[in-house]
């Protein structure tokens, strides 16, 4: 995928990783639709891109819904042209533990998983006709490993990785590129909110991430994501140590689970 001259949609672009990816894509020559529930945040993202000489528009839309996705795609088409790159970045941490009720699970499944499925359903048929397109699913190292203290987050990030794998296997020989981004700790409002949460289980989840490795800036994630799009690479690991952890997990699952229990115990 040649980013220069392309049209990209980035969800969850009001802050954090989404804002960084939108900015990096624009700097590489893409016209960007920055989407987020927080319209003020994406307007700031778009304004900063335009001030730097790029092309962008901010749109307040719910990327977890078919209607919101349609709004983002239509805006891109009207302002810049057909969508070439779609970055499904919007995500939530969800309720700690098992969650209090079914509404917790409905919310996190919609945002962290169904948003990816719905976006792909909206774009893949057109991309197949054109023989080109690139889908980026921003998951998490939790999708390869796990997330202590938050079942919903762990389950949906595993599912996001699985969906990205399926897309790549099914359509990779038909001109559609797929990248799956799996960072550990990134300095974003989402992580900071969990680290500073009042709920002790949520704080433990944040401590697990913070203690597992370096907390990096979102710009680093964005840089590697843009490079993966250009290179047509599937797995993006901003924390290289995740690959060793993943191999360790697969080589001896029982030992890995026992080790995670011990790690959880050290976090109280």
From TrEMBL:
<dbReference type="GO" id="GO:0016616">
    <property type="term" value="F:oxidoreductase activity, acting on the CH-OH group of donors, NAD or NADP as acceptor"/>
</dbReference>
<keyword id="KW-0560">Oxidoreductase</keyword>
<dbReference type="InterPro" id="IPR002347">
    <property type="entry name" value="SDR_fam"/>
</dbReference>
<comment type="similarity">
    <text>Belongs to the short-chain dehydrogenases/reductases (SDR) family.</text>
</comment>
<dbReference type="Pfam" id="PF00106">
    <property type="entry name" value="adh_short"/>
</dbReference>
<dbReference type="InterPro" id="IPR020904">
    <property type="entry name" value="Sc_DH/Rdtase_CS"/>
</dbReference>
<protein>
    <submittedName>
        <fullName>Dehydrogenase</fullName>
    </submittedName>
</protein>
<dbReference type="InterPro" id="IPR036291">
    <property type="entry name" value="NAD(P)-bd_dom_sf"/>
</dbReference>
